[in-house]
Specification:
The protein is an all-alpha fold and about 80 residues long. The chain has one domain: de novo design (two linked rop proteins) (Up-down Bundle). The protein is about 75% helix and about 0% strand. It is built from four helices and no strands. Helix 1 runs antiparallel to helix 2, helix 2 packs antiparallel against helix 3 and helix 3 runs antiparallel to helix 4. The two termini are about 15 Å apart.
Length: about 80
């Protein structure tokens, strides 16, 4: 069940990363969050925590479109429920 949720989060992040309207520094944070979730080594809760930190940093960017910020918050909520 948790793996399916992680795959859903990774898929959502992948779609966000492909958006043209996202600043490059946010794309870097999104990519880092995906890498943390995709990494099969290490403790799951630590991987999720690292990903959450990257996503929270990304969502704080003032140049981020509101609809993308909402998508990121949705993924953050999903990950927080699995932490």
């Amino acid at each position: 069940m948790i793996e399916n949720d992680l795959l859903g989060a990774i898929d959502g992040l992948s779609q966000i990363e492909k958006e043209e309207s996202i600043p490059r520094n946010v794309k870097i944070k999104i990519k880092s969050a995906m890498d943390s979730l995709n990494n099969r080594e290490g403790v799951l809760s630590l991987r999720i925590s690292k990903s959450l930190q990257d996503l929270e940093d990304a969502s704080d960017d003032p140049n981020l479109p509101d609809y993308i910020r909402s998508q990121i918050w949705s993924i953050v909520s999903l990950l927080e429920s699995k932490e």
